[in-house]
Each structure stands twice: as C-alpha cells, then as structure tokens.
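Propose amino acids for all 119 sites.
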C-alpha cells in the first residue's frame, strides 16, 4: 500500500505561482505513472498533468505552458509547478500513482491539497 501526501497548496493572487509536492511512502513509486488531478467546487475531478516512469509528460489543455510536472525518484516525490495562476485554477489538487503490472492494477490517491487563486 503506497501512501501519498500532498503539500504546497495555499492562497495565491492571480498571476502568482505555487509548487505542489507529492511525497510517496516507498521507493517503488519510481515505476508508477504519477498524475495530478483537481476538483473545483461543485465539479467533477479533472486530469491536470501526468509523468510516466520514463519521464514523458502530458498536460490538460487548460494548463499547458503554465504548469510543469516533474519527479525526483531519489526523493520519492512528484512536483507540480504552477505559474500564471488564474481564479479558475482554484480547486483541491490530488496526487495519483498508477501502475498496471499486467496482472494487477495499482491505483493510489493522496488526500488532496487546497489551491485558492484570488485577489
């Protein structure tokens, strides 16, 4: 059972930046695809960004060129650098670790961290 703990959320003004961190409880996380999702008030949870075990990255169109996902396997940590933040980025951000071994699917979630973009 992998445990994920997000941190780095908070209140920021429009145009500002935040860096979210997702710390995993074990080093096996290096083989997992890591993803960030977010849920705005009253809305469904949406995909934000992903990074494969090999380092390939993917982004939702709404955050492309503003957000950057990265991973430090030595620290068992994934990051989401968020720049040029907008009020519509306000949401609870969740970290997800996913691995399909071919025999089993491993899918873990963190508890979420609140990001509020407001003046």
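Proposal:
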């Amino acid at each position: 059972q992998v445990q994920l703990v997000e941190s780095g959320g908070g209140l920021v003004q429009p145009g500002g930046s935040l860096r979210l961190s997702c710390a995993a409880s074990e080093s096996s996380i290096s083989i997992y695809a890591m993803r960030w999702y977010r849920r705005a008030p009253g809305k469904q949870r949406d995909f934000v960004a992903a990074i494969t075990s090999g380092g390939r990255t993917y982004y939702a169109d709404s955050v492309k060129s503003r957000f950057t996902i990265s991973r430090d396997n030595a620290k068992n940590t994934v990051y989401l650098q968020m720049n040029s933040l907008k009020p519509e980025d306000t949401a609870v951000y969740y970290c997800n670790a996913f691995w399909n071994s071919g025999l089993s699917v491993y899918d873990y979630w963190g508890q979420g961290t609140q990001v509020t973009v407001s003046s």
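The mean pLDDT is 96. The first strand starts at residue 4 and ends at 7.
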